[in-house]
Write a structure and sequence with these properties.
By secondary structure, the chain is mainly α. Helices cover 68% and strands 0% of the residues. It is built from 7 helices and no strands. It has helices spanning 2-19, 24-28, 31-45, 63-72, 74-77, 84-102, 109-131. Helix 1 (2-19) packs parallel to helix 4.
Length: 139
């Protein structure tokens, strides 16, 4: 689940970097999401004995926030990911099962299948982008 979630972060970064530029975080993300990410980043920085989640704000967003970034910037994703609306729906469908896993509980068989399909679909999307000549960029 977390591999798929981070791959979504990389895809969001890649597309918005191409479409908006290096300041995409400041220009394409709702200030409330930016503030929340900054708060989580500061909290994490207060525990330097732990590994860093990443330096970019996108690493401090929730899965639902990633869906919201896709929704608000759908017009920027459409030329690269024509089924962006379906991706927003997929993210929403896996958001609750992801939280079950995140809170160290066991997903139902149905939720596990949903997570597995999401993982497979995200890997396929990343492979398609790369086959289209779009190099994925880790933030």
């Amino acid at each position: 689940m977390y591999t798929a979630e981070n791959l979504i972060r990389i895809i969001v970064n890649t597309v918005l970097l191409l479409q908006v530029g290096p300041d995409w975080w400041m220009n394409a993300v709702d200030p409330k999401i930016q503030q929340q990410a900054a708060r989580f980043s500061r909290r994490h920085a207060g525990s330097p004995w732990h590994s860093s989640q990443g330096r970019h704000g996108v690493y401090y967003t929730f899965l639902g926030d990633l869906g919201e970034i896709l929704r608000v910037n759908g017009h920027l994703f459409l030329p690269i990911i024509p089924d962006v609306d379906q991706w927003i729906a997929r993210i929403e469908q896996v958001r609750l099962p992801r939280n079950v896993v995140g809170h160290m509980n066991f997903p139902t068989v149905t939720d596990q299948r949903r997570i597995d399909v999401f993982y497979s679909d995200v890997k396929s999307l990343a492979a398609k982008l790369e086959s289209d000549g779009i190099a994925l960029r880790i933030p």
